[in-house]
Amino acid sequence: MPIASEQEQSPTERARRNDTTVSATRHWAAVWSLSVGVFGLVTSEFLPASLLTPIADDLGVSVGAVGQAVTATAAIAAVAAVAVIFSRVDRRFLICILSCLLIVSNIGSALAGSLWLFITARAVLGIALGGTWALAAALALRLVPKENVAKAIAIIFAGMTAASVCAPAIGSYLGYLIGWRGAFWAVAGIGSVALVAQLVALPSLRAESTTTWRMLVDLLRYRRIYAGLITVVFVLSAYIAGFTYIRPFLERVTHIGDQWLAVTLLLLGLGGFAGNFAGGWGAGRSSRHASILAAYTVGLTASVLFGGAASFPIALTGIALWGFAFGAFPVSIQTWTTESALNHAENAGALLVATFQVAVMAGASVGGLVENTFGAAGPIGYCAIAALCGGLAMAGLTRRDDT
C-alpha cells in the first residue's frame, strides 16, 4: 500500500495553496526552464563518455583514470541530493545557484590542465546535478495543477532524454571540430541559457515542511521504496559501466572509425529518446511491469551487443536497442517511486537521486576496473549481467504488488 492515504492533505498541496499565485503560462514556462536546466546538466554529465579518449590523451593519463571523473561527479551528487532537501532556502533561489554551479563546472573542465583539476571541476557539477534532480519532480508538483503533474514531470524528463540524444553525438562531433575543451565551453553556454530562463520564469517557492533524518530512514523501511532503490543500483550501475566506456568499446572491439562514431552515438541517443516515451506509456499502465521489462531488456540487449560486436550491423542495431531499453527505465522507476511515496515527494526524490548517483559511481568504478582487467568489451559484459539481476530483484521484491 502507498505510504500515505489519498484522503490526507499533502504538504505539497498546502504549499501550493500558500505560494504566490502566478498565471498558467508562467507555470508552464517555469516547468520548461527546469527542463532546459536538466538538459544542460545531463549533457554535461554524459559529455566525458564521448570524449574519453581525447581527454585522456591531452591530460596524459589512462582512459580508466579519466573515467573516474564520472565517479567524482556521482559521489558529490549523492551527498548533494540528500543535503539540499534539508535547506530552508527558497527553491527558486536554490535552483538558480545550482545552475550557476553547472556553468562554473564546465568552464573549469574546459580550462583544466591536469586530471585532478578536471576531477575537481566535475565534482562541482555533482553538486548541481544532485541538488537539481532531488528537487525537480517535487517542484513540478507545486508548479502545476494536480491533474497536470504527470505532464510536467514528462516535460522535465524530456530535457534528460533530449540530452541523451544530443550529448554523445554532439560531444563527439564538437570534440572532432573544436576539441574537447570547446565542447565543455559550449555546455557552459547551455547552462547560461537555463539560468536566464529560470530567473525569468520561476516563481518564489518556499521550502516545504522540515526534513529530518528520521523521515528518510522511515521511508527506507517501506518495501516498495527499497525495492525500487535496489533495482536502481543494479540497472543504472550496469548501464553506466557500459556507457562510460562505450567509445573504447566501439573503437577497439567494433572498430568503428571517427566518421561513424558520432552516427553510432546518435543512434544510442535516439533509442533512449524513444524509450523514454515508451517507458512513460508503460508506466502509466503499470510502473512495476514497465520497470521490470526495462531492466530485463537492458540486460538482453547488452548481451546481444557483447556477443555480436564484431559485426557492424549487429553493433549498430544493438546500440540503438540498448539505448531504447535504458531510456524506458528512469521514467518507469521514477513513477514507481512517486506512486509509492505520495506525500513525501522531496524526501523520496532525494533518496532516489542519491541512489542514482551511488549507482553511477559504482558503475563507473566497476566499469573502469573491468575495462582495465578484461579489455574494452568487459563493461558491456558486466552491464548484461547486472541489469538482468536488477530485473530479477524488482520482480521478486514486488511480487505482492503484481496486479
From TrEMBL:
Region described as Disordered: spans on this chain: 1-21
Domain (Major facilitator superfamily (MFS) profile): residue spans on this chain: 30-403
Bias type Polar residues, positions: 1-10
A UniProt-annotated Pfam family: MFS_1
Localization, UniProt: Cell membrane
InterPro entries (UniProt xref): MFS, MFS_dom, MFS_Efflux_Transporters, MFS_trans_sf
Keyword terms of this UniProt record: Cell membrane, Membrane, Transmembrane, Transmembrane helix
Membrane topology field: Multi-pass membrane protein
Listed GO CC annotations: plasma membrane
Gene3D superfamilies from the UniProt entry: MFS general substrate transporter like domains
GO MF annotation terms: transmembrane transporter activity
Spans traversing the lipid bilayer: 27-47, 59-86, 93-117, 123-141, 153-176, 182-205, 225-247, 259-278, 290-308, 314-336, 348-370, 376-397
PANTHER family linked to this entry: PURINE EFFLUX PUMP PBUE (PTHR43124), PURINE RIBONUCLEOSIDE EFFLUX PUMP NEPI (PTHR43124:SF5)
Protein name: MFS transporter
Natural source organism: Salinicola corii
Source lineage: Bacteria, Pseudomonadati, Pseudomonadota, Gammaproteobacteria, Oceanospirillales
